[in-house]
Design brief:
This protein is mainly beta. The protein contains 5 helices and 26 strands. The longest helix has 14 residues.
Length: 464
């Protein structure tokens, strides 16, 4: 540890130094946390295994309960009551080489992040359930973990003064409505309620660092904030059976502001109360899907989605201490675009598997980085990213046979028998381009970063 660091550890200087490091680091993690599921680094975009397999090019298809996330207007395509639940397991690492040749390795607390990001959705089409007075109205609610879990760097690493551990167990509760205005146009409207829960991790954002020998700092905070989303799905062309051949989807997600309230700890003892205001950015998605083949026997879909994320709203991350002192910190992030391309080929009438549907999926995403060198943080791998992946989907209808032992329609509980049961699986690799950081406000962060992340996603779907 340098003499300069030791001089910083006066009562006032140490407190100010910790907070300056945090604003460069933990504040950015609250604004977003990395996972390979994301086509929006650091936002986790993968909130359904079928969509993830197509690199999240799904907003113009949106025909399973994950429409709650990708395009709520698509819920009008769902009949009856439908449930979906799943989780993502992520692994991988970042290798760092400093300008002087010192190396370090960061990972997701081993080989996989824990707790894993997950998703749960339930939708109900009121008209198909016999409630006709409200027209073609579908209601739904979702629960997702949109920003991942943790990153860990060695306590004796070259930038232990910047970060050794960060976690953000933030949840998004999504009450949502969708209405079919005409046969070809549906609209969606919903809320995004962001909150922390003690059921996941510590129930707060945390960041650890070691700014001086024998000193371990922790900053934490939590809050609940709300935003909204609005969407549409327009079918421009249908086949003779009335199924879409060309869809257009548009989704707007508003920004939300978290007023974090927490503590600064030094070696486990409270030093000060702390407050910070952090913005989750607005997101605009445009999507188009076409089906070159769509018959009663098979379907082939191609889709392209473009996401705009307004990271430029992260202009500064001011921190207020318990004594009223405010530390101003400019960030100057830039807004980014992500391009997602996905395809799905589905067999609807296989002789070898009667009453089953089988789908193969693949996709590619290109994502820009949003952080300048000055405010780059090792806890957030923010540099240009390529994601490739694929997956499979299986849907067993009511009359289908499960392993030749029983009908899929008999797999329910008591009188609650499903009309169909589905399983979707996906695998993805996030290939980050190498990034060399120069001129960071914390010189120990300067160096070259090489990151590869992997993600597996699984979803189970029930149709009633």
């Amino acid at each position: 540890m340098t003499d300069a660091w030791n001089r910083c550890w006066s009562r006032t200087g140490s407190l100010r130094r910790i907070w300056m490091l945090w604003v460069c680091g933990v504040g950015l993690c609250v604004a977003g946390f990395p996972e390979v599921a994301s086509s929006q680094v650091p936002r986790i975009q993968g909130q359904g295994a079928a969509a993830s397999a197509m690199s999240n090019a799904f907003s113009a298809q949106a025909d399973d309960p994950s429409a709650l996330h990708y395009n709520p207007a698509g819920m009008t395509q769902l009949q009856g009551v439908q449930l979906m639940a799943g989780a993502l397991a992520s692994g991988g690492s970042t290798n760092f080489t400093s300008l002087t040749g010192v190396t370090a390795r960061g990972d997701r607390n081993g080989s996989a992040a824990w707790p894993p990001p997950g998703h749960t959705y339930i939708t109900a089409n009121l008209k198909s359930l016999g409630v006709t007075a409200l027209g073609d109205l579908v209601i739904g609610v979702g629960l997702t973990v949109p920003f991942g879990s943790m990153t860990r760097w060695p306590n004796d690493g070259s930038f232990r003064s910047a970060t050794t551990f960060s976690t953000l167990p933030l949840m998004d509760i999504k009450p949502t409505l969708a209405y079919k205005v005409t046969e070809n146009l549906s609209l969606g409207l919903g809320a995004d309620i962001y909150t922390f829960s003690n059921l996941v991790g510590e129930g707060q954002v945390e960041r650890h660092a070691i700014p001086a020998a024998g000193v371990k700092t922790e900053l934490n905070g939590k809050d609940t904030a709300a935003g909204f989303n609005a969407s549409l799905l327009y079918t421009a062309l249908r086949n003779a059976d009335g199924k879409p051949l060309a869809n257009i989807g548009i989704v707007y997600r508003s920004q939300a502001t978290l007023h974090l309230s927490g503590e600064l700890l030094r070696n486990g003892a409270k030093v000060s109360d702390a407050n910070a205001t952090l913005v989750l950015p607005q997101v605009i998605t445009g999507a188009i899907a076409i089906w070159p083949i769509r018959t009663k026997e098979r379907e082939w879909k191609l889709e392209m989605d473009v996401d705009y994320v307004g990271w430029k709203s992260v202009r500064n991350l001011d921190v207020t201490l318990g004594n009223g002192t405010t530390i101003a910190q400019p960030q100057n992030w830039k807004s980014t675009y992500a391009v997602m391309i996905g395809s799905e080929y589905k067999w609807l009438a296989l002789e070898s598997l009667p009453h089953w549907e089988v789908a193969l999926r693949a996709g590619y995403t290109n994502q820009q980085n949003q952080m300048p060198n000055l405010t780059f943080d090792p806890g957030i791998p923010s540099w240009d990213l390529h994601i490739v992946g694929g997956g499979v989907g299986l849907l067993c209808k009511e009359e289908g046979s499960f392993l030749g032992l029983m009908r899929c329609g008999d797999l329910g509980f008591g009188s609650l028998k499903p009309k169909a049961i589905g399983l979707d699986l996906s695998l993805q690799a996030g290939l980050y381009e190498d990034r060399t950081v120069l001129g960071n406000r914390n010189p120990t962060v300067d160096g070259t970063y090489q990151t590869t992340l992997y993600l597996g996603n699984a979803s189970i779907r029930m149709v009633y």
